Amino acid sequence: MLMGEFQHAIDAKGRLFIPARLREELGERFIVTRGLENCLFVYPLKEWAALEEKLRALPFTRAEARGFQRLFFSGATECELDKLGRILLPAHLREYAGLEKDAILIGVSTRVEVWSLAGWQAYSERIRDNYAELAEKLELA
């Protein structure tokens, strides 16, 4: 299971270090794509295949399905770790997520999310205020 929160800097070439605890679950190769709330989603190949199957089953006659598939798949790229445990994030994905220097990687069960530090701080502050309420609505509490 992917979990935890890790802060790392993106270097001048757009490379991001992936912590060892996340690399163990992600494997040597994985998929990075546009996520929701302006972060990036990182999927192990097995999880990507399962998600791809679900998205492929959506009715292509629905504009919402086509729009989501277009943005989700067009932003996707396969990444491979270098010898130092880094990946190169393409410019279009860095731009989408507002990633310039400081990034936060968070494990979210089946995926990793990559956020700009400022984006994660703003989002987590907003959500933190409703944490108990969200649990109640989802019938977790």
Give your account of this protein's structure.
The chain has 141 residues and is of the alpha+beta class. It has one domain (2-137): Chemotaxis protein chec, CATH 3.40.1550. The chain contains 6 helices and 8 strands. Strands 1-7-8-4-3-5 form a 6-stranded antiparallel beta sheet, with helices on both faces. The longest helix has 12 residues, at 45-56. The mean pLDDT is 95.
What labels describe this entry?
single chain, 141 residues, alpha+beta, Chemotaxis protein chec, six-stranded antiparallel beta sheet, two-stranded antiparallel sheet, 6 helices, 8 strands, 40% helix, 30% strand, globular
Write the layout of secondary structure elements.
Elements: E1 2-9, E2 15-17, H1 20-26, E3 29-34, E4 40-44, H2 45-56, H3 63-74, E5 77-80, E6 86-88, H4 91-97, E7 102-109, E8 111-116, H5 117-128, H6 131-137
Antiparallel strand pairs: 1-7, 2-6, 3-4, 3-5, 4-8, 7-8
Query: Mind summarizing the main beta sheet?
Result: 6 strands, antiparallel
- Stated plainly, the CATH topology is called Chemotaxis protein chec
How would the global form be characterised? Answer: globular
**Percent range of helical residues:** 40-55%
Q: SSE order in H/E notation? A: EEHEEHHEEHEEHH
Strand content: 25-35%
| Second-tier CATH architecture | 3-Layer(aba) Sandwich
